[in-house]
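Retry 2 of 3 after timeout on previous attempt. Resubmitting structure tokens to design endpoint.
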């Protein structure tokens, strides 16, 4: 899988310009189909991909999600870049394929130091995509926020991993899990390592309080940047948090309590913030903060239901939020505004896209039998088992999540359309294909949910 993704990266550099898009979309589509073969060995604890690289039931769904979204981001970006010079189109494609390659490295590495290097490398192509191909001059400020938050949060992680390697004389992730359980280490040392390690992942998720970079990055990023950010880069934080809590699972039950309280409160607060948003992309971005805060709370609960629910919600949210950004871009390319009040009444002008809006809004609010519902139910059950007091806040969060999802659908599709929207270009077949390829995995996971459950 790593060699195929590297071949895709090299082809984006070497392919002639007139064949670049068609060749790259075809090659990434083949890679996406081939990645499904990883599901065959899903029940194995570790399945080796190459030397020092392997996949397990935790990383396999995230690797497949990363590869699956590469052709979809290329499909969504092609019209956006038609007016760009050929050299910039090639750089854009190289950055996207390089970003996916580093994501596969991050999810599949067995070495903690290499994990950190790949984890930080994802910042570079993302930052360039946001600051170069963003829509407005504020993209530079968004890039600064993104760089400052992620780098400052990652510094304690580097110190913790180096200290861990110096103490255990091993950088292997499976071996580190065993050594921390066998060695008789002080609880205070393990707690300090755990605390230093999770800050970077909580920033990348991000949880409420460390989230200020995300709405800015989402609003200013081009369509591919928003899709990758929402669908995969946020899941890096969840993946790292699960790995770290599995290493330091037993000494952190009391230390995790304040973080869980912040996450539960943040999920409710961002649901309330979403109701007040007027920008379509900002609303979707804040909803991601709420869902990821809930994921972090489920992981920190250190229960089987919390971990399973977090992984299910991460995969389902990755597909749904990416599709919502595609729909927001579909409207923006025709109306040239993201303001909800200026995008109303689109069901009369683009009725087929309204059907996609309805499906994705229903998935975002957790309508049964879609996997978003089961992920939220697993997490909420684990939180109620932790303390019944969380029933009130999580219940309100679910209610307000339904309200802002329906508000997003109603505000953009219903009512009479403004006068300047009398004539719009129809939605294209390639856009419907893109949304169909987002929906198909959701339906597959609804029928066969064990594909994203790990032991």
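Retry 2 succeeded. Sequence:
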């Amino acid at each position: 899988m790593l060699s195929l993704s590297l071949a895709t990266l090299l082809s984006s550099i070497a392919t002639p310009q007139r064949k670049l898009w068609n060749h790259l979309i075809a090659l990434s589509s083949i890679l996406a189909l081939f990645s499904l073969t990883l599901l065959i060995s899903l029940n194995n604890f570790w399945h080796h991909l190459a030397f020092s690289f392997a996949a397990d039931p935790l990383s396999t769904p995230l690797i497949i999600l990363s590869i699956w979204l590469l052709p979809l981001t290329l499909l969504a970006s092609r019209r956006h870049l038609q007016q760009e010079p050929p050299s910039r189109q090639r750089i854009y494609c190289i950055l996207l394929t390089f970003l996916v390659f580093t994501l596969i490295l991050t999810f599949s590495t067995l070495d903690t130091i290499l994990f950190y290097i790949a984890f930080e490398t994802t910042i570079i192509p993302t930052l360039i995509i946001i600051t170069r191909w963003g829509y407005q001059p504020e993209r530079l400020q968004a890039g600064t926020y993104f760089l400052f938050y992620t780098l400052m949060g990652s510094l304690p992680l580097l110190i913790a991993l180096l200290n861990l390697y110096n103490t255990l004389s091993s950088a292997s992730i499976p071996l580190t899990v065993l050594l921390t359980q066998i060695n008789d280490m002080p609880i205070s040392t393990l707690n300090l390592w755990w605390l230093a390690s999770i800050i970077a992942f909580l920033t990348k998720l991000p949880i409420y309080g460390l989230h200020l970079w995300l709405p800015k990055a989402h609003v200013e990023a081009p369509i591919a940047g928003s899709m990758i950010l929402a669908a995969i880069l946020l899941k890096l934080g969840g993946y790292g948090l699960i790995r770290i809590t599995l290493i330091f699972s037993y000494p952190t039950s009391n230390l995790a309590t304040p973080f869980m309280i912040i996450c539960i409160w943040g999920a409710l607060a961002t649901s309330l913030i979403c109701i007040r948003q007027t920008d379509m992309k900002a609303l979707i971005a804040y909803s991601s903060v709420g869902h990821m805060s809930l994921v972090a709370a489920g992981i920190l609960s250190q229960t089987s239901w919390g971990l399973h629910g977090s992984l299910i919600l991460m995969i389902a949210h990755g597909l749904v939020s990416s599709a919502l950004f595609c729909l927001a871009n579909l409207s923006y390319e025709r109306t040239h505004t993201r303001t909800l009040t200026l995008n109303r009444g689109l069901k009369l002008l683009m009725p087929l896209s309204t059907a996609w809006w309805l499906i994705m809004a229903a998935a975002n609010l957790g309508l049964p039998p879609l996997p978003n519902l089961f992920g939220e139910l697993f997490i909420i059950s684990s939180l109620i088992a932790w303390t019944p007091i969380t029933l009130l806040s999580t219940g309100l969060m679910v209610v307000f999540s339904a309200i802002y999802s329906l508000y997003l659908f109603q505000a953009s599709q219903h009512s009479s359309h403004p006068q300047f929207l009398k004539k719009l270009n129809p939605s294209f077949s390639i856009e419907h294909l893109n949304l169909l390829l987002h929906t198909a995995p959701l339906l597959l996971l609804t029928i066969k949910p064990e594909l994203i459950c790990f032991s």
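Attempt log closed. The two ends are 23 Å apart (CA to CA).
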